[in-house]
Amino acid sequence: DAEITQSPRHKITETGRQVTLACHQTWNHNNMFWYRQDLGHGLRLIHYSYGVQDTNKGEVSDGYSVSRSNTEDLPLTLESAASSQTSVYFCASRKGVNTEAFFGQGTRLTVV
Amino acid sequence: TQLLEQSPQFLSIQEGENLTVYCNSSSVFSSLQWYRQEPGEGPVLLVTVVTGGEVKKLKRLTFQFGDARKDSSLHITAAQPGDTGLYLCAGGSGNQFYFGTGTSLTVIP
Question: Do B98 and A50 lie within an 8 Å CB cutoff?
Fold first, then answer.
């Protein structure tokens, strides 16, 4: 069965360190997204990609970057982790406009 | 900028009661989706509505897309403890979609 997986599920890091969260999907979807989820804010879009070599900034992209070298993977990098980036991060993929988005199980990141 | 506001943010009701969750925006969307999320999991799609005024029913859940495609509602009839979870609306604009602030529902047996 096709799936979307995130790793790690939990991560504790120190302020100022670079951190990369992995997202891998086997749906063969062109569209992939990264969100962060914080209480009272729902899911906020960080970055998204419509295909290989395509990346775009979302509404809360400062301090984050992504790269898309193949269809399956969209790693999210925190260049210099800050305490404000403590959150739960979700990766999603979908086939196209108005279609179902499939989510990973999330990565809980704590920056101390 | 949060494009979609949901109300109420928290809702705690007794089993068997009815409830309505609202999703409002000043923006027009090409589609509106509702997702349900359980603790420790990612959101799972419940429904997609694409036409202004559209109503869809999924067992005890009724979803409506506003005529102007700026708002939506989710109505649950005779709520069950299994309905407990976080309900999220998501507005589609092109290939992007933006989530609402979420409604946390607790149904007490």
Answer: no
